[in-house]
Write a structure and sequence with these properties.
Blueprint lengths: L8 E4 L2 E4 L16 E7 L11 E6 L5 E6 L7 E6 L4 E6 L2 E6 L8 E3 L9 E6 L2 E9 L2 E6 L9 E3 L8 E2 L14 E5 L2 E4 L7 E5 L12 E8 L3 E5 L18 E2 L2 E7 L4 E7 L3 E2 L6 E4 L2 E5 L2 E2 L34 E2 L3 E6 L5 E5 L5 E6 L4 E6 L2 E8 L11 E10 L6 E7 L6 E2 L8
């Protein structure tokens, strides 16, 4: 369970890459025309604690460079959304920070009242629909626009039909899972938002998943992009009255997903080699055509039921999250440090093996460049298609190199490439340097 021990050797398929040699670091953000930016944020655990959120670049000596603080601990970060086209939304109790990937240093905070990510929320964007974040509060749907529009307030009445164009990349890795969007099955239709009216039909399901209209079955949105819609329909053994019964912990393994290929309207069943319990969410993300799964194995017993003894040997100032606050949701799960990449377009598969439970892929670019995190370190690598590789085998992951190691890296779950910015300073203890 998230033992946070140091990663020295990473194996990718049959290829072993030694990262302890530490090749030269990337240049600082203000000298790279296509700089890497990292978003660090941790959702609140059960209880009174909450933690800050920040946007970083990468500087000299492979250290984080603070671009700007987003939330302080007192502002209570709640959830993250991404329109997958250049805008990221970090929502807190009383406002939303918007990151504009074409201008990372831009300050953009929109005050809101009573943000909630349950039972319905999401980022929407469509061909004729500007980027916005929507959430339900009491009987209202509230919208926060990603950009100012002439004569319009940034905050206003939402559009229920816009949920048909929801954008959601999937669940983050590490021990800090976030609340995913929820939907329901009514008859043969998949409808959003969960438990609210009015609602919008976002897809028509295969007939075998038809549910009596009066029964209505809860569904987890695993990912929703322009190309794909991935959902998880929990098995009957995990269900209570229409939703997952967390009071009676159960599990399912392997995970059965339904993926809609939007261009053709075709549904495909995918079996994913990971376990999900009543207290966890499907550990799946989609980047372009790549679906990434964090492998979790059901292993009941004392070896998976306790909090970790150490926290990767790093200092734990009060501002940083303590893994012990989160570990109970992963009881009886073993996380071996394996990330499975499946290409939904051509069926290709890759496995990234780090041997560390706190591992996740945080970005994959269209040209194949990939960023992944192992404990307090982030690496860059390249996915090389089978069509241009030499020798036997299919797609490969190559050129893995360390690009940053720092105390706040375990809180980094999102990344993007953007233009260089002159903002930023290297921080040795980022939570104490604002």
């Amino acid at each position: 369970m998230f033992m946070f021990v140091s990663a020295r050797q990473l194996s990718i398929g049959i290829l072993t890459l030694l990262v302890a040699s530490f090749p030269p670091a990337h240049a600082a953000p203000n000298s790279d025309p296509s700089a890497i930016y990292l978003v660090a944020a941790t959702p609140p655990p059960p209880g009174p604690n909450s933690y800050p959120a920040a946007l970083y670049g990468i500087g000299a000596q492979r250290k984080l460079v603070l671009i700007r603080q987003l939330f302080t601990a007192e502002q209570y970060f709640r959830n993250f959304g991404d329109d997958l086209h250049g805008k990221m939304y970090l929502a807190g109790q009383n406002g939303v920070f918007i990151i504009h990937q074409d201008d990372p240093a831009r300050e953009d905070f929109v005050p809101v009242e009573n943000f909630d990510d349950f039972p319905c929320w999401g980022v929407v964007r469509g061909p004729q629909l500007p980027s916005a974040m929507q959430y339900c509060f009491t009987d209202q749907l509230i919208k926060v626009l990603g950009d100012s529009e002439p004569g319009k307030s940034r905050v206003g009445k939402g559009d229920w039909a816009a949920f048909k164009f929801m954008q959601y990349g999937g669940e983050i890795g590490g021990p800090f899972q976030m609340q995913p969007p929820l939907a329901e099955i009514e008859g043969i239709n998949l409808v959003m938002p969960y438990s609210f009216r009015p609602e919008v039909v976002i897809a028509e399901l295969p007939h075998e998943f038809e549910t009596a209209a009066a029964k209505r079955r809860g569904v987890t949105i695993v990912a929703s992009t322009d190309q794909y819609l991935a959902i998880w329909v929990p098995p009957d053994s995990m269900m209570g009255r229409g939703s997952i019964d967390s009071s009676n912990p159960r599990h399912t393994e392997p995970l059965q997903l339904l993926v809609l290929y939007r261009s053709s309207g075709r549904w495909q069943k995918l079996e994913v080699p990971t376990a999900v319990t009543s207290n966890t969410h499907p550990p799946v993300r989609i980047f372009g055509d790549w679906m990434v799964t964090t492998i979790m194995e059901w292993r009941p017993g004392p070896h998976t039921s306790g909090a970790p003894v150490t926290e990767h040997g790093r200092p734990l100032p009060n501002e940083l999250p303590v893994v012990r606050e989160y570990v109970n949701q992963f009881v009886n799960l073993h996380i071996p440090g394996k990330l499975v990449l499946q290409n939904l377009s051509d069926g290709g598969k890759l496995t990234l093996s780090t041997g560390q439970d706190d591992s996740e892929i945080i970005a994959i670019r269209a040209d194949g460049e990939m960023l992944y995190r192992v404990n307090d370190s982030i690496y860059s690598a390249e996915i090389v298609p089978a069509s241009i590789t030499t020798g036997p085998g299919g797609d490969r992951i190559t050129d893995s190199r360390l690009i940053v190691r720092d105390v706040d890296v375990p809180q980094v779950h999102w990344a993007f490439w953007g233009p260089a910015t002159k903002s930023g300073k290297t921080v040795t203890n980022p939570r104490r340097s604002y």
